[in-house]
Amino acid sequence: MVAAVHAAPPATAPIVWVQAGHEGPREPGYTAQTGAGSGPFGTEVGFTTRLAARVVVRLRAAGVDARRTPGRVTPLGARGAVFISLHHDAEGGRAGIGHAIAAAGENWYHGEGFGSPSPRPYADSAPHRAATTVSPAVERRSRDLAHRLAATIGPLRARSPGASGAFGGVEPRDGNVRMTRFYGFYRTRAAARVLLEAGAPGVDDGFLRRVDPIAVAVSAAISRHLRGRGLLR
Ligand SMILES: [Zn+2]
User: Fold this and answer.
1) Average pLDDT estimate for 69-90
2) DSSP per-residue string spanning 107-123
3) Most buried of 40, 57, 60, 165, CB within 10 angstroms?
4) Distance 43 CA to ligand 1 centre (A)
5) Distance 107 CA to ligand 1 centre (A)
């Protein structure tokens, strides 16, 4: 019997959580972080929601149980093989890939997400929901996925028109804390946790506008990572 195109994935399919960065409803403590107000679709959310939808379609076609989550990680603390948060950086920023690191915690901000990130709460920080932990094994798997993403996104950017900004590759563990101590890494129990900054609005608009090739690159990297773990044929 031939499986229907839209059949549900088998119960053994690996679960991949795909977060459209900044999509409402947003995470308590970070609700003021609405994302860049520019880019090829006018806002970062215009990009992240389009990309998330296409990544989910591609992953499901590859036999993955891909599921969406908005900025408020839903459900909280869910298990899975992968959690990926999709973004394009702020104006003047650069493309790159962050991954969860062990023995660290999430960023705190003033109020609901203003000001500079801090490893400790400010007196006026809004409450956060309960945090999960990042073990050394989670960091190792996250780094593997981050490098696989760099291996598909980097070459795609290099050969694509309109990608004029810089690509930072995999963010070092002592690098940009917005990418290494991202709250989403602490609201999931997924075995690998990464964040993609696909580009910077303005200089990369021509690249970011073509969402489909980016979705192909993202889903290919995730599929290779899952195959490397023996979770996908
Ligand atoms: Zn963002």
Assistant:
1) 97
2) -EEEBTTEEEEESS--T
3) 165
4) 10
5) 14
